[in-house]
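@channel sequence for tomorrow's demo:
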Amino acid sequence: MTPETFDKIIDCVAIGTPIWDVLILTENIPPPGVTVRNAYIALCAGGAAANVASGVATLGGKSIFIGKFSNSVLDYEYINKLLAQNVNVIALISERAQIGFCVSLVLRSLLERTFFVYTGAHNAISCSDIEMVSGVIKHSHFLYISGFELTRDDQERAYLKAVNIAHSTGTRVFFDPADPKIISEKPKIVWRFAQNCDILCLNHLELRALTAMSNIEKAIAYLSDINRDMAIIVKMRERGCLICYDRKMIQIPGFRVECVDVTGAGDAFAAAIIYGVCKGYSLKKAAILANWFAAQTIKKVGARSFPEKEKITNFISSLRSTAV
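structure tokens (generated this afternoon):
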């Protein structure tokens, strides 16, 4: 069936859980009963979808974040932070719970994280909520969905409805499975989203969990055979990323920086891919921008520690003049 035609006036609509990140950076995990004094603890606005919307807006695109909120002060403060980053917000009010929280224990030595998550009000998102915002989806170039959102049956149905609206109106779907554990716990639903997206973006651990293959090239080829119209991007940290489209596989080198906090790196990467594709970049050029943008983000603490506007403008200007 030919999709309906709608003017695409929004680069990205990201639907997801609004979450405050409580970041605890430590050199090691203390034994039980020990008090760690002078610990580095930060409260930052987070949540994958909101991070992506913020990244797109920071790069100069137009984005909308949609999430369930309550009427608490913390909810309003979260919304104000998004508005300050030029992100448009559609707040679906829920009386059931407050905004979500994620306590992230970050080991500096290994750059690995342990999460303790309370998803809060967004647990209540429903198909009727998606119907209310269907017009926004129809007028967007991209719909962003994270695997973090696929933990409850009602959520799964709501996001599948969003995907169906996107497909029927020519809006492309960007899907990030987000976590190998989610893939192992919800393999059927993750596969369903993976098979019905336009860009599948995941890291090498998620790729292995999804395909049960340890060889990255073979796993990418397997996914490509399932959906030949889908672009596949595999993030490989400092080694950059692998992209596959039109049966071509290309490695894009990364940017080496001093890493402080990896929180939100994948979200920054996704935002830059979406922004680049919307601006007419080839996927290869968009991946170069994504590698750079993610690398700049991990130089500071917090998921939205994006580079300054001047740095972004200078890098994009140099990228545009580069033949890729």
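heads up for whoever presents: Residues 208 and 215 are 8 Å apart (CA to CA).
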